[in-house]
Write a structure and sequence with these properties.
By secondary structure, this protein is mainly alpha-helical. About 70% of the residues lie in helices and about 0% in strands. It is built from nine helices and no strands. The chain starts with 5 loop residues before the first helix and ends in an 8-residue tail after the last helix.
């Protein structure tokens, strides 16, 4: 579900109408379910990865709070960091690094081949991987306390407005909002409307129109382009990336305000 699709806005309207009729604990459970539905709509198999990362860091967080020995605490933190980076490395960077290694060896006159993984890149894997890692790192540093309720921690990891495009939140900032009752007021509605509107403008008007220019330039052969056309393509690509990321972050912050959450600026 893309933020600029009708499917998402029908989904969000249904979530919004049910969400504000529930008490706090039920709100959290319903939001977690909605977040998994949202993420699973890309590919339900991705849910196994986010659940694995959630379970590992919840267990590490609880173990850190019950462990005093510096060596044991470092080992627990290493377990969290290594597990999350391994997941990220395999699913996002394995094929990239193996292909670069093959190219390097070929340049040195060594002929070889490397295995490649035929897997789909999980949406938002970088965002929730670093967000779960930040949780265990902050517990290790003593700047946050572990949450005892697994489902509340799972919501912190999978909160759907910022799941696939950020902004990445520190647990010391977002978890208290998960654990505390929330209310909706007029200021949040107005700020949310501004953020959603400006975000959709950046995404649809700026990024999507820049993408047409970028596609036309980048599919052309170098000899078919003038220097000015290359320059236009480069700057159009920069504005496309800005519009995509800034637009998505603004929409995420806007719909979060409508749910009673305050996300940080990206």
């Amino acid at each position: 579900m893309l933020f600029n699709s009708w499917v998402f806005w029908f989904f969000f309207l249904a979530v919004f109408l049910v969400y504000w009729r529930l008490p706090h604990v039920s709100q959290n459970r319903f939001l977690l379910l909605a977040s998994y539905v949202f993420y699973g709509s890309w590919d339900w198999r991705f849910l196994s990865l986010i659940l694995l990362s959630t379970v590992i860091d919840y267990w590490v967080g609880m173990a850190l709070s019950a462990t005093e020995g510096p060596r044991s605490r470092r080992l627990l933190l290493l377990t969290s960091v290594a597990s999350n980076l391994a997941i990220l490395g395999v699913f996002k960077y394995f094929n990239f690094f193996t292909s670069q290694l093959v190219d390097l060896l070929h340049a040195l006159g060594i002929s070889c081949s490397a295995p490649s993984l035929h897997i789909v890149l999980p949406v938002g894997i970088s965002f929730y991987t670093f967000q779960t890692m930040s949780y265990t790192i902050e517990i290790y540093r003593g700047s946050t306390c572990p949450t005892r309720r697994f489902l509340d921690f799972a919501l912190y990891v999978a909160f759907f407005p910022q799941l696939v495009a950020g902004p990445i939140e520190r647990s010391s900032r977002l978890l208290p909002q998960v654990l505390s009752p929330r209310q909706l007021n007029g200021t949040q509605v107005e700020e949310g409307l501004f953020l959603v509107t400006s975000g959709l403008f950046k995404k649809i008007v700026v990024a999507d129109n820049m993408a047409r220019i970028v596609d036309a330039v980048f599919v052309s052969r170098p000899g078919e382009l003038t220097g000015l056309e290359c320059l236009i393509g480069v700057y159009a690509f920069a504005f496309q990336m800005y519009g995509d990321f800034s637009g998505y972050s603004a929409i995420a912050r806007g719909i979060s305000k409508w749910l009673g959450f305050d996300l940080m600026d990206n």
